[in-house]
Amino acid sequence: MNGIVAAGAPRERLIERALALIVEGEMAPGEAAGSARLALHQWRGKSAEHAAAVQEARQRWDALGGMANGLRAHFEEPGGTLMAHAAAAVKSPHRQQRRKMLLSVAALLGTGLVAGRGVQWYWQQPVSHAAYRTATAQMLKVTLADGIRGNRGMSGSRLDLAPQSSIEVTLYRNRRLVDMARGEVRFEVAPDKDRPLHVQTRAAVIEVVGTAFTVRDRGGPITVGVEHGHVRVGVAPRPGFAGTEGATIDLYAGDRVEIADGQAGRVQQADTAALSAWRDGWLVFENTPLGDALAAVNSYRTRPIVSDSPRIDAMRLSGRFRVNDSEGLMAALPTILPLTVAPRPDGSVALLAR
């Protein structure tokens, strides 16, 4: 059978011709689109070979899954080369320029890139992107535009940011990505099994379809606590250990884990809702490294509380404190830990080991 082409099999040049008419019918302005659709119908009727070519071209175009809108946006990008060609085609009295541009698109699709780079390009284009940051003593509530369309009452994911937090949110057609630089964020994720949400931190990636959980990153260990649902935590390999693979941990309601230096601690059962108690005006620490606890407290203070040694930062603190009562915390610290409190002239406070 080598070298033999079955009768009626669509040839690539005919497919490209059909694609040119399909693309023009989908993308050309005004009457030109109607004329292209009529021309496609007439061209299709000329022979069985033409009909087969149209069928194959239509399958390639439909395989893009709605990419026409994405291509339009791509063509209309300011300064884009394709936009310039399209503009020239509309303004020019000669149809040759528009035909040349459309044939270029058809050739691109006809090369098979529709099943490769074309589709890859489509899925890699973000639907939306936004950055959210909070200042000292500032909290922020964000609702994402990621609710499933057609589900009545289905709202988007809700994010609560604690003070001094920073994230970037990028929504794609097949996934949702939150790049968390620092701080504390509580996630109430809108379920969408076809578009999981990933929270990317400096030490782990958290994958979720629909659940409520909190991520804390104040510079020390990263803490993840799940209120309900299920999240999967992929721990990043330890820096400097090339070729190693990080652990994957499944967390369920009431589970909490700390991650540091490429290693996850033991999964513990805890009051995970307490991780986001700052939403109600409380800071709750449960065996938290003092350095992390101070970072959380300082996110509400214009003058920080600082320690003079890593040994102090490593001390563990448990307790419940008002976010606006750091003075009460400083009064309590010497009774809880072997520390003394030393106010400084600039308004900051130093913690010294006893």
Tell me what the structure shows:
The protein is an alpha+beta fold and 354 residues long. The protein is built from 10 helices and 19 strands. It has 3 domains: 113 residues, no CATH class; 146 residues, Jelly Rolls (Sandwich), CATH 2.60.120.1440; 74 residues, Phage tail protein beta-alpha-beta fold, CATH 3.55.50. The strands form 3 sheets. Strands 1, 2, 3, 4, 5, 6, 7, 8, 9, 10, 11, 12, 13 and 14 form a 14-stranded mixed beta sheet that branches. Strands 16-19-18 form a 3-stranded mixed beta sheet. A two-stranded antiparallel ribbon has the order 15-17. α1 packs across α3 and α5 packs antiparallel against α6. It is elongated and about 95 Å long.
Number of domains: 3
CATH fold description of the largest domain: Jelly Rolls
Low-confidence blocks of residues: 1-9, 72-95
Q: How much helical structure, as a percent, in the residues?
A: 25-40%
Strand tally: 19
Let me know the average pLDDT. 80
Over all CA atoms, what is the radius of gyration?
Answer: 29 Å
Question: What's the CATH first level of the largest domain?
Answer: Mainly Beta
Report the CATH architecture of the largest domain. Sandwich
